[in-house]
Amino acid sequence: METTKILTGYFIYLPVAIALTLIVSRTLFKNARIFMLDIFKGREEIANATNKLFETGFYLLNLGFAFLILRIDLYNNSYQALVEALSYKIGGFSIYLGFMLFLNLYFFFRGKRKAKENRIDERIVFTAGKP
């Protein structure tokens, strides 16, 4: 009976973890394109390519972590234990996804700030050269 509950847990956890990863990734990288275009000064091809690489890395890290923490041990063979184990797994994975989302946002804002600093430096160089 315990094996059936554990398999039920896997059949619930895996689709939820994959769906959460897909939803967060699509939201993040749909909006990250704007940052990439700003960072790469409107060069669409390199902005899209970089955004796609970030997205691929995001999928690999998050799905890899979801699979890494897949194991469910039910010491008490009850549905209560299954629900508690699933809530712990899904809650922990959601917190991890939130952390990864904010880490990516930090990198996007940092890249945008650096791009802005470079533009200011370029303006200073160009205006300093004029009499």
TrEMBL record:
Protein name: Integral membrane protein
Domain of life of the organism encoding this protein: Bacteria
The entry's keywords: Membrane, Transmembrane, Transmembrane helix
Transmembrane region(s): 6-29, 50-70, 90-109
